[in-house]
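Exercise 7b. C-alpha cells:
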C-alpha cells in the first residue's frame, strides 16, 4: 500500500508541473482568426502501400475549421530517403518547398492570380467576411465603412497560411502486423507543419507586381517578371507524430458477429482520414493560432457562438477565463475559472455573420460558477484518465483503470471505454496465499451532478485468474460480469478523488490447463463474489 501511495504522489507532482502553464493564463490572446492550411501527402514511393495511400488521399474530408488552400496536386514525392539517417527532414522539406515555389502558389491562390498575371481581392474579401464574428459584424455596422472594414481584414488572414505534410509510415494491415482475429490497418503518421512568412516586406513586393487594367504590355511583362523572381519564404513550425488504427474483429469471432463488417478498402480509407484528423487535433494542443477563442454567450445551459465552422466536436474541451484587474500591474489579466466540454448539440454555423449566429451547447466539468462574457479558449486534451486505487470486499486488492473518452469519435458526450486490472493475495480453506489477478474491459457513461462532482456508471466483462504453487493443473480462470458506479470529486480540473461500488458476478465454471473443472468459482473460493468498495485517485490528461 505504501508503494502505491508513493507512485500516486510521484504522478501527482508530474501532473501538477504539467498543468502550471495552463493555470496562469496571462499570455492568452483574446481574439481568434481562421488560419488556412495547404495539405500534402509526403510520398515515399518504395514504402509499403504508398500507392494505396496516394489513391485514397484525394478522398480525405478536410476540416471546415481552416480555409482550404490545397493546390491542384496533393502529393509531394519525398526529397529524401528514410535510410539516410544524417538528413533532417524538416530542413530538406523546407528547401524543397522553396525550390518548387509552393508559398508563391499559395499566395497566388489568395489573390486569384491568373495566367496573364492579373490578381484580384475577391477571395480575400470573401474570407474576411466569413472570418468575422457577430461582435465584429455589429461593430462594423456602427462605422462609416461598414462591411468594407471586414472585407479588408482578409489581407491579415494571409499571414496565417500554413503548409502541412503528412507522412504515412509503417503502413500495415493486420495480417502483416501479425495480429490475429482482426482486420484493418495501422500506421504511424508524421506531420510536418510550416508557415508562409508573408511579412510586410513580401507584401510590399507583391503589390509592386500588381497589374492594373491601364498598364501597358511592357509594364505587365515587367511586373510578371518581378513576380516570377519573388521568393516568398516559409519557416518550419513543428513536427508531430500520431499512431492510428482502423480495425475491427473478424466475422468469425464472437464480437465480430455483432459488428457490421467493413471492407479492407473502407478501413484503409478510415486510416488515411484518421491520419489527417488526429494530426490536426494534436497540433491544436500547442499551436496558439489553431486554438479557437470565443466568449460564453449564455449560461444555464452554457452556450457559445461556435460550431462546425470552428471544427467543434462533441467533448472538445475549453477553458474559461475571467478578466480581473491587477492593481499592482495596472492591467486586466485573464484568470482560470473552469472547464467546459461540448455536447452533441453543435450547430452548423458555416455562414457569414449577420449578428444572429446560432450557438452550440456545452456542459461544465470543473471550476466555479461561470458567467456570460467569460473568455473561452480551446484546450484539446488526450482524453485519457488513469485511476489508481484499492478495492475492499471478497474481491479486492490494488486496482487500476484506464478510461478513454469517445465523444469526438461517436458524438455521445461523456462516454468512455475502459480497461481495468487488479491484484490480491488472500487465504482460503483450500490453500493459504492464493494470488488473484483480474482484468477486464467495458463501457462507462458520466453524469455531472454538480460542477465538480461526477457520477460514472459502467458495465464490463473480464477474467479472473487464481494461481498458487500447489495448483498441479495450472492457474484457474473464470469470466466475470461487473456493473457499478463511481463518484468523483474534483481537487483540480485534472485530479479527482474517487469512491465507488462494483458488483463482481462470476460466469460459468472455473477452468485450468485441463479445461472445465465442473466447479463454480464460489465452490472453490467460498463467498468470492458480490460487492466491492473502491477508493482512489484519478488523473486526467
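Sequence design result:
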Amino acid at each position: 500500500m505504501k508503494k502505491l501511495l508513493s507512485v500516486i504522489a510521484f504522478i501527482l507532482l508530474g501532473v501538477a508541473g504539467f498543468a502550471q502553464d495552463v493555470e496562469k493564463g496571462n499570455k492568452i490572446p483574446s481574439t481568434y482568426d481562421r488560419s488556412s492550411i495547404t495539405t500534402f501527402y509526403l510520398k515515399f514511393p518504395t514504402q509499403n502501400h504508398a500507392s494505396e495511400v496516394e489513391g485514397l488521399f484525394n478522398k480525405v474530408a478536410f476540416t471546415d475549421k481552416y480555409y482550404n488552400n490545397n493546390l491542384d496536386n496533393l502529393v509531394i514525392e519525398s526529397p529524401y530517403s528514410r535510410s539516410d539517417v544524417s538528413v533532417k527532414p524538416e530542413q530538406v522539406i523546407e528547401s524543397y518547398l522553396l525550390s518548387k515555389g509552393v508559398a508563391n502558389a499559395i499566395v497566388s491562390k489568395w489573390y486569384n492570380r491568373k495566367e496573364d498575371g492579373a490578381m484580384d481581392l475577391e477571395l480575400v474579401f470573401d474570407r474576411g467576411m466569413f472570418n468575422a464574428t457577430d461582435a465584429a459584424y455589429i461593430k462594423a455596422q456602427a462605422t462609416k465603412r461598414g462591411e468594407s472594414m471586414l472585407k479588408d481584414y482578409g489581407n491579415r488572414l494571409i499571414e496565417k497560411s500554413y503548409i502541412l505534410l503528412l507522412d504515412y509510415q509503417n503502413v500495415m494491415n493486420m495480417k502483416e502486423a501479425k495480429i490475429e482475429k482482426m482486420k484493418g490497418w495501422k500506421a504511424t503518421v508524421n506531420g510536418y507543419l510550416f508557415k508562409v512568412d508573408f511579412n510586410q516586406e513580401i507584401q510590399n513586393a507583391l503589390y509592386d507586381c500588381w497589374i492594373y487594367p491601364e498598364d501597358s504590355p511592357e509594364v505587365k511583362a515587367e511586373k510578371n517578371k518581378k513576380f516570377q523572381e519573388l521568393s516568398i519564404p516559409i519557416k518550419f513550425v513543428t513536427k508531430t507524430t500520431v499512431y492510428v488504427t482502423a480495425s475491427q474483429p473478424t466475422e468469425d469471432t464472437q464480437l465480430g458477429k455483432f459488428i457490421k463488417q467493413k471492407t479492407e478498402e473502407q478501413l484503409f480509407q478510415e486510416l488515411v482520414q484518421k491520419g489527417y484528423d488526429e494530426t490536426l487535433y494534436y497540433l491544436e494542443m500547442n499551436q496558439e493560432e489553431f486554438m479557437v477563442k470565443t466568449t460564453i454567450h449564455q449560461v444555464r445551459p452554457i452556450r457559445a457562438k461556435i460550431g462546425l465552422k470552428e471544427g467543434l466536436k462533441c467533448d472538445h474541451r475549453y477553458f474559461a477565463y475571467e478578466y480581473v484587474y491587477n492593481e499592482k500591474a495596472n492591467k486586466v489579466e485573464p484568470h482560470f475559472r473552469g472547464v467546459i466540454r461540448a455536447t452533441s448539440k453543435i450547430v452548423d454555423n458555416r455562414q457569414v455573420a449577420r449578428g444572429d449566429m446560432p450557438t452550440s451547447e456545452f456542459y461544465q466539468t470543473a471550476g466555479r460558477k461561470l458567467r456570460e462574457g467569460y473568455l473561452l479558449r480551446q484546450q484539446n486534451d488526450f482524453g485519457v484518465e488513469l485511476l489508481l486505487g484499492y478495492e475492499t470486499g471478497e474481491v479486492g486488492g490494488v486496482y487500476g483503470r484506464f478510461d478513454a473518452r469517445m465523444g469526438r469519435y461517436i458524438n455521445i458526450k461523456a462516454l468512455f471505454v475502459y480497461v481495468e486490472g487488479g491484484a490480491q493475495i488472500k487465504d482460503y480453506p483450500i490453500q493459504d496465499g492464493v494470488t488473484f489477478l483480474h482484468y477486464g474491459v467495458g463501457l462507462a457513461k458520466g453524469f455531472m451532478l454538480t460542477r465538480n462532482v461526477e457520477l460514472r456508471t459502467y458495465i464490463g466483462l473480464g477474467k479472473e485468474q487464481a494461481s498458487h504453487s500447489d495448483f498441479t493443473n495450472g492457474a484457474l480462470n473464470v469470466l466475470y460480469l461487473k456493473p457499478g458506479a463511481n463518484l468523483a470529486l474534483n481537487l483540480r480540473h485534472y485530479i479527482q478523488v474517487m469512491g465507488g461500488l462494483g458488483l463482481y458476478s462470476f460466469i460459468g465454471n472455473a477452468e485450468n490447463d485441463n479445461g472445465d473443472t465442473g466447479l463454480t468459482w464460489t465452490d472453490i473460493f467460498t463467498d468470492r463474489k458480490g460487492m466491492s468498495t473502491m477508493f482512489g485517485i484519478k488523473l486526467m490528461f
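Instructor comment: Residues 384-540 form a domain with the Porin fold (CATH 2.40.160.20). DSSP finds 13 helices and 21 strands in the chain.
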